[in-house]
Amino acid sequence: MTPQPAEKSWALDLRSTSADLLELSVYDHIGESLFGAGVTSKDILAQLRA
Asked: What's residue 10's pLDDT?
């Protein structure tokens, strides 16, 4: 039986602290686990492009 990826349930908070600086806060485990939990750089990039 192949494990199914978990539904992504992470929270992302973006704050602009100045004209050229963006603060990114991630509220989840960083990096994908064997079961698909956690947040990856691909997840964040997809969310920023959305």
From this structure: 67
Please compute Rg for the chain using Cα positions: 13
Q: 36, 34, 33, 15: which is closest to 24 by C-alpha? A: 15
What is the tens place of the pLDDT at every residue in 4-47?
455 556 676 778 888 888 888 877 778 888 877 788 888 888 88
Nearest to 11 by CA among 32, 26, 22: 26
d(CA 42, CA 50): 12
